[in-house]
Each structure stands twice: as C-alpha cells, then as structure tokens.
C-alpha cells in the first residue's frame, strides 16, 4: 500500500502519537512511584511544584544527591564531593550494631543500644553495620526504623546499610549465621544443593529477599561459594557442598533471587556478598581460618583454580559484593606467580589483578571481620582450660601480624578493599591520608561504590519499613509452606531395608507404637501414632541424631563454638548409644543432621532406614516418613568410610577418598507399592 494513502498515513500518525505519549508518560509514571516513596522523619521536606524531596543536609535547597529525578551516577558524584575525609573513612567501615545484653558489644540482643549506635554514626561516621539482633519481625522492623532516624539526623543524612548473616536455616553459630525468629524456615544451603534445582534456590532467594527488606535488612553476607573439599571443615554447613559446577549453579540462582534479578541492584534488591574469595574450604584437618591454628589453606592437589569456578556463577548473576577469605593460600602459584603469603584481604594479586582485572568485578569488596585487629597472647595460644574466650580475643591479621593496625588498613586499601568488616577505626584511615600514605582520591573510588548501592536500593529517598507490612509478610503461608516442603525434599534416603518407608500408621500390619529420640511426641501423635517411653513397648524406633564432632580448641573464641575433629560415631557417644540400644530391640529409623560429612559405617548396619537431613523440622520429617513428600535429595558431598581415608585425602580435591561409604550424588527413592 502506498505510504501516502490516507489510511496508511493515519495509522503511522497514530503509532507515532502512542510512542510520543508513552515517552512522556513513562518518566512521569516513574516520578510518581519515586514521589510515593519519599519519606522523612527527622529531616525537613522540600516542595518544588507538586513534588516532594528530603532536605537531608538541611540547607533549605534541593541538592543533586537529594533529587530523585537525577541518575544514580549524578547523585553519587554530588554526595561524595560533599563528604569530608572523616565521612569517607567512616563509610569504609562496616561496623557492628550495639545491642542490650551480655553480648551487646557484638550486637547479639533484643534491642539496639541507641546511645552507642548514635556515637558510631556521629563520631565515627559509620553508615554500614551488621545486625545480630533477635526478635519478632515487628520488633526487628521497629528497631530498624529507630536506627534510620538516627542516621537521618547526621550531617548529610546518609542512610544506614544493614547487613546480616543467614537467618533462614536451622543452625545458629555466632559469626556464621543468625537466629531466624519469624523468618520462613528452609534447609541449610547444603539441602538446597541436595535438591539441586536452580529454580528452587532462586525462589528461596526471592522469598528471603522480601523478608529481609520487610524488617529493614539490605545486605546478605552470603552465599558461600566455598567448596567443602575437606570433610572435617567446620564451615561446611554454609556451603553448597564439594562439587564446583553444582555450586556454581546454586550460587548464581541464589544471588539472582536475593538481588531481584541478574541485571544489577534495584529498589527491591538485597545486596549479596559472595564469600570467601578464594580457596576457603581447603583447610588442613578442617581447622577454620577464624582461628590462628587454621590460618593457612592447603592445595596439595594443585586444585586452586577449581575453587574459583563457583564464583563465576556469582559474576554471571551480577553479584554486588565480594568478601575475601581469611586464610593464607599456602604456596599457590597463579599464572606463573606465587601468591603473596597473606590473607586474601591483603592480596593485591587476588583482589585487584584477579577479581577486578581478570573477572571484571565492579562492586564492593568487603573484608571479612577483624582482619586489621591484633592477634597476640590468647588469640594465638588460646586460653588455659576453664577460662572462656571473649570477643576481645578475636583478630585475624593472617600474614600481616608484624604490621601495625594503620599499616594493615593501608595494605588492605592498596590491595583493593572498599570496606573493612567488623571494625570502626575511622581515625586510622584519616591519619593514613593526612600522612600522605593513601590518597583521598583512592578513598573516593571505594566510597563511590558504597554510596551508589545505597542509591540503587532507594535508601536515600525512604529507608523506613512499614510495621504492618512486615507482620503480614511473615504470616505468608505460601512462604512458610515452600520452606517446609524444601526441608522434606532435601532429605537424602541412604538406606531403606525391606522398604520400611514410607510408613502407614493406620494399617494393622505396620508398626504403630513408636519410641522417639529428640522428636516431639505431639507431632507423632498428630500423625496417628502411639508414643511409648520404653523400647520394650515399641514396634519401631525413630531417632534424630547429629553428625559427630569434637571440641578440640575450647580456649579459642571460635574453636569453642565450631565442630571439629573426628567424623565417626564411637562407643560412649550419646546418640550412638541410643542407636545401639534401639536397633537391638526394634526396627530403627535414623535421621542424621549433616552439618558436615559423617562416617556412618557402624550406623548403617544398625538402621532399617537411614536418612540424611540438612535441617528439617519434626512435621517436615514426618511428611517424608509417611510419604506425603518423598525424599528427593542427593548427597552434596561424599560420606567417607573411615578416618584413615579422610586423613589421606587432599584438602583441595572433591570426592577423593578411595572407598566412600556413600558417593557424591547418592540418594534412593521410594518404590511404588
């Protein structure tokens, strides 16, 4: 048809008109959405026409960083230009929110110490903090809003970024994860790996994202992309297991869920900080890098590059943060050069040359906690028997013990760090710049990255959360149900002799009287069983046990809390004694919680059914026992057959014991009856 025909011309004109209208309407729509978000509690508001803005610096005029109509780059550039040297140094600290109670100095309590926090904001100029607070969703939301009010009263009104260790799983270990009060309950990340479905892991991240933001948490100090290639390692529980490619898929999905997509941060995102770059997990005897006796990682199998693979999934997902590892990678040669024998937070090779250069990472590099602290006396040697270590004994300056604190800050910045975790020593960075040992321009690079993320999350326009929305979100039955089903699906069925599972309690030819160990009797009764207290009266025993461990270093703060040592069930172990007693009298079902691998050689022979779980509630366990949710998990690591084989394997290689009792990927299914 001729383009000059009246009909065709009318159609073209209409299309152009629609496009023109949309080009005007879309920015207007975005502005309306931004306008609706703008909230001030302490700072005055400015009105320009019909639009409202926060006058964060109280100068009576709209400055570029306060103007939500401008680009993030423009706002960030203007803000950094206005910041003093002290404020820039404060922004490069990731401090600890103080709380009430005996562990208030490390933030473990139920209420914030607002006086102490105000001092950190006003004097130290810190505006990024970890929270370890416990409480209901409403309580957490209320406390977060009080913090943001304090921040809004600061000179430039810079909002706080609040981070947390994982809160959605079962284990609670200080320094690794936090109490999950009110959050939907999911299996450990090992359980997500056991299920092995990226879509489910992304769904978990998406739910966790919404729950975090509802209570005012903006940053997840997770996921762990570390590989659990050493079976005795005490941090295994936070990983996705020992296979690099499985972990890569899980890490990418996890981050995509938390960050609300894979195209960068947005208003609904939670910043993720993938950790620990790189090689953590290859720990001699499994001793952890939090303590002086675990400050080296070993690579006898020359397999360092294998430990990098999972991080490429994080980069593909646009991860916003990276946390370097504590340990020194012993004698590793990378691209023909031996790595400097320092922890990764002080390694220019690992941070600037590899992470920023080779892999193109442009986000924030946040150090692990307390790497600039001293480690002397009890930190090195531990306390005598009977004395309890405290947070005052924490320090991880591995490889730079001989430097002063200011020299450690300088070396960290020169290596490529943007923020220092767990410390608030702003004055040392200020002193380094004024002495000409660091340039303010270098600090500007880090502060720009940190502030840009606050703008991308919308915190400069509204850092507050709505209490009613927090309560409503945490009552979301879909979220609760999704977590419970995942707990069940993650269970790995290792043995099922004579197809004893699934149980049928109502049937006259199946056991109905149960002896229980570490299981709530009310849950069993609710599922149609009779619970007895003596084995002699039982038809069947159902036992919950945990992977064996030793406390080999009670004189160290983390050594007292971490699971180390032997993986075997031995005579005298309370759980093993119950297994022996029960299996001698009745068919026995054993469900073992694996926070790291266990040697089950002498447990397998005593079990009619043997299940591995990675965090499961009693109701979710009975869903599996009764077949309502069949177990679908596959082992995310191998289970060795002996400690001799564990001691002989290479710390940096996956599934390398010669005769594992259960191989990586093992897992049975129920047969149809």
- Per DSSP, the total helix count is 21
- State Rg: 27 Å
The total of beta strands comes to 20
Instruction: Give the uncertain stretches in residue-range form.
Output: 12-16, 18-30, 172-179
The CATH class of the largest domain: Alpha Beta
The major sheet is characterized as: 8 strands, parallel, barrel
Per the CATH scheme, the topology name of the largest domain is TIM Barrel
Instruction: Using the alpha-carbon principal axes, give the shape.
Output: globular
Q: In whole angstroms, how far apart are the ends? A: 68 Å
> What's the overall average pLDDT, rounded?
93
Offer a quick outline of the entry.
52% of the residues are buried. By secondary structure, the chain is of the alpha/beta class.
């Amino acid at each position: 048809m001729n383009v000059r025909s009246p009909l065709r011309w009318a159609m073209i004109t209409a299309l152009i008109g629609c496009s023109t209208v949309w080009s005007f309407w879309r920015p207007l729509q975005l502005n309306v959405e931004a306008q609706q978000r703008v909230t001030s509690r302490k700072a005055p508001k400015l009105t320009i026409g019909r639009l409202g803005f926060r006058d964060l610096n109280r100068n009576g005029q709209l400055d570029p960083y306060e103007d939500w109509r401008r680009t993030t780059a423009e706002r960030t550039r203007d803000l950094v230009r206005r910041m003093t040297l002290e404020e820039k140094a404060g922004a490069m600290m990731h401090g600890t929110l103080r709380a009430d109670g005996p562990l208030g100095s490390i933030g473990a309590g139920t209420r914030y110490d607002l006086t102490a926090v105000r001092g950190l904001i006003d004097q130290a100029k810190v505006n990024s903090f970890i929270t370890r607070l416990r409480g209901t969703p409403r309580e957490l939301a209320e406390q977060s809003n009080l913090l943001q009010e304090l921040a809004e009263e600061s000179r430039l009104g810079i909002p706080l970024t609040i981070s947390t260790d994982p809160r959605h799983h079962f284990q609670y270990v200080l320094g690794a994860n936090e109490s999950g009060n009110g959050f939907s309950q999911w299996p450990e990340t090992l359980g997500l790996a056991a299920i092995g479905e990226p879509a489910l892991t992304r769904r978990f991240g998406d739910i966790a994202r919404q729950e975090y933001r509802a209570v005012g948490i903006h940053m997840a100090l997770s996921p762990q992309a570390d590989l659990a290639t050493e079976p005795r390692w005490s941090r295994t529980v936070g990983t996705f297991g020992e296979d690099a490619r499985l972990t890569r898929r899980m890490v990418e999905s996890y981050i995509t869920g938390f960050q609300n997509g894979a195209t960068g941060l947005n208003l609904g995102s939670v910043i993720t900080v993938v950790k620990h770059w790189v090689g953590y997990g290859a720990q001699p005897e499994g001793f952890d890098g939090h303590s002086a006796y675990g400050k080296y990682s070993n690579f006898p199998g020359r397999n360092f590059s294998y430990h990098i693979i999972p991080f490429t999934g994080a980069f593909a997902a646009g991860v916003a943060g990276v946390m370097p590892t504590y340990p020194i990678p012993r004698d590793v040669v990378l691209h023909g050069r031996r790595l400097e024998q320092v922890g990764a937070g002080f390694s220019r090779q690992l941070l600037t040359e590899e992470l920023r250069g080779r892999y193109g990472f442009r986000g924030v590099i946040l150090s692990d906690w307390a790497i600039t602290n001293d480690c002397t006396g009890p930190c090195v040697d531990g306390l005598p028997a009977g004395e309890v270590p405290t947070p005052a004994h924490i320090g991880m300056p591995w490889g730079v013990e001989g430097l002063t604190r200011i020299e450690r800050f300088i070396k960290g910045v020169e290596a490529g760090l943007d923020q220092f975790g767990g410390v608030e020593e702003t004055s040392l960075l200020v002193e380094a710049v004024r002495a000409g040992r660091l340039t303010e321009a270098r600090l500007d690079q880090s502060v720009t990255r940190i502030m840009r993320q606050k703008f991308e999350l919308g915190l400069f326009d509204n850092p507050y959360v709505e209490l009613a929305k927090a309560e409503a979100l945490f009552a979301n039955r879909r979220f609760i149900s999704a977590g419970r089903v995942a707990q069940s699906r993650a269970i790995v069925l290792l043995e099922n002799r004579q197809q004893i599972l699934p149980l049928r309690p109502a049937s006259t030819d199946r056991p109905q009287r149960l002896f229980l160990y570490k299981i709530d009797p009310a849950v069993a009764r609710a599922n149609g069983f009779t619970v007895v207290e003596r084995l002699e009266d039982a038809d069947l025993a159902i036992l919950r046990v945990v992977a064996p461990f030793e406390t080999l270093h009670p004189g160290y703060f983390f050594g007292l809390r971490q699971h180390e040592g032997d993986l075997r069930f031995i005579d005298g172990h309370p759980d093993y004694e119950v297994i022996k007693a029960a299996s001698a009298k009745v068919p026995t079902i054993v469900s073992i919680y694996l926070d790291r691998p266990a040697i089950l050689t002498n447990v397998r022979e005593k079990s009619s059914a043997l299940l591995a779980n990675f965090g499961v509630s009693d109701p979710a366990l009975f869903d599996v026992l009764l077949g309502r949710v069949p177990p679908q998990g596959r082992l995310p690591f191998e289970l060795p057959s002996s400690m001799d084989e564990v001691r002989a394997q290479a710390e940096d290689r996956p599934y390398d014991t010669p005769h594992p009792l259960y191989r990586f990927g093992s897992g049975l299914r129920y047969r149809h009856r």
